[in-house]
Amino acid sequence: MRVLVLGSGGREHALVRALRRDHVVSALHCAPGNPGTAAIADNHQLDPTDPNAVVELAERLAVDLVVVGPEAVLMAGVGDALRRAGIACFGPDRQAARIEGSKAFAKEIMKAAGVPTADARVCESAEEVAAALDAFGPPYVVKDDGLAAGKGVVVTEDRDAAAAHAAACGRVVIEEYLDGPEVSLFALSDGQHAVSLLPAQDFKRAYDGDEGPNTGGMGAYTPLPWTPPGLVDEVMRTVVQPAVDELRRRGLPYVGVLYAGLALTSKGVRVVEFNARFGDPETQVVLDRLATPLAGLLHACAIGGLDPAFRPIWRTGAAVTVVVAAENYPAAPVKGDVITGIEEAEAVPNAYVLHAGTRRDEEGRLLANGGRVLNVVGTGADLAAARRAAYAAVEKIELRGAHHRTDIALKASQDA
Length: 416
Known about the structure:
The chain is α+β, with helices and mostly antiparallel strands and about 425 residues long. Helix content is about 35%, strand content about 25%. The protein is built from 15 helices and 24 strands. The strands form seven sheets. Strands 3-2-1-4-5 form a five-stranded parallel beta sheet. A five-stranded antiparallel beta sheet has the order 12-15-18-23-20.
């Protein structure tokens, strides 16, 4: 099977790495990719949000499957264009991808499908915002209706800050605050059936102790020893399958991965958000644990041949990923600083490095080229061992001004 992965971040490096392990993959391409994917796949420089350019590349490479990484690519209609050209694509069409591209549309789908979620109001004026903030009270939850790379949500006790965020966004969804820990669950869908992957947990706040601003995610781990028995089956039954069924009923078959961000509240499971792609950085740990070959799974979804009774096989043990972020991330990350120590980090037993925001200069030096620069993954027999491996590798990496959280999976490893 010849496979093309679209995107350039840590999620895409993780996808390429998992696909490289699949013996049926005879050719592996990434566009545009990064220095990490370049080591294990053929990179191609293009704008992945340009549908015509993607179709041209896929046809020239004679690929059997295109795997879409970022949400912006989906919202640009790349999935639609590939399917019109007769090319199998893992990733929904633009209209179905609005389940992430529009928070208001997602709420509409959830309501129609009976999916448990927070009460919410869609607001377009200052008056509507004020009324919603009054209705729900603190903590205030304000979400940009459109794509915001994981940083369009403000959760605050400060009413003025909530109103200011709403004013800066324009159209927003304001909703009730959901208590309880959060869980990420990915489900693979062929438009009719869905199968689940392992649940994971990510860490959205920039600093230890869940302090600081929201980010795209500063780390993640799996498995989750504290989740209640039967959680995955419950979520598939009450959240994922109803959403897939509702989208199909509307003539929008959902082909790809449906990411359910969940809160385990005192009143039961509630959906915080849906995403239309693999979550980053949860993908990095979930795919590390996957023993079932990935390419066949994704291709079955793309061509409508997913067996609803199929259950992926998972490697035992645990995986933890720690994000090494650039100076001043998430506000205005500093780019262009030299990164060293990657080889030393990868020499740490049971650890490896995924590139997320890097590039090489004319001299071949590795440079920071984004906010979340590297994902350092540690594995082990349990979460404590995986944490030790990840953080031992992080200590080998040198990047001026970089920062990372030191508490990824800490509580779960202590409680396990």
